[in-house]
């Protein structure tokens, strides 16, 4: 059991300069006994309102040095404070506020919410077990208008889809990776300096002057995973889900016009989805 959607804004002031972190936190616990379920005995139950207040107090006292460290702080608190807790899992996601810039100068206290993907993390720990940390990005909408196709696929009497060698590739991406057993990582450094998000964009789009051909959504998913694993050694396993959006070329002949893939209509439903989990061999062997 636990508390979901604990939402708050943490404001940190450095003189005149302000920094913000707006997050949503979900924390779930497992206890030494299931007596609250089986017998209605609540003597070991930590009220969900208490869970919420603990999260807010930790944000006040410790700040949010990084999403991952905040999730770790929450896990550590429940493990060290409550002997009846045997497992804790914390999920944290961030509202994508970015500092405003005016003529290249960063503003000291103004921000803009930019919908370019939502950063999130998870930390989980069993008593006497290792602390495991995951991180990721979701709701990242991507599109390229060419250098994508789908040909040579299996066909039978139920196949109506035509082959395409030039199509729009568009989708909403979910990406989650594991750092394995938690070590002394600078999580923000991994996020910003190793530029995992930029690896995703590079693998999806290819070189800026010419792009890179994608023969399928599946190959694009694999390309993202391979590039991240090759450039970010801290990542052990990476899961990518790409929910596809398809576009059909609008037939405008009855309007007396030729439509050379200039006006397209999105197919709202059903839509496709590709998912894959890829990891380093040594991680799976361990």
From TrEMBL:
Binding site for O2: 48, 244
Keywords, in A-Z order: Oxidoreductase, Peroxisome, Purine metabolism
Highest taxon listed in the record's lineage: Eukaryota
Binding site for 5-hydroxyisourate: 48-49, 150, 167, 218, 244
Organism: Xiphorhynchus elegans (elegant woodcreeper)
This protein's GO CC annotations: peroxisome
Pathway: Purine metabolism; urate degradation; (S)-allantoin from urate: step 1/3
Catalytic activity: urate + O2 + H2O = 5-hydroxyisourate + H2O2
Record keyword Transmembrane present: no
Descriptive protein name: Uricase
Binding of urate, residues: 48-49, 150, 167, 218, 244
Record-stated family: Belongs to the uricase family.
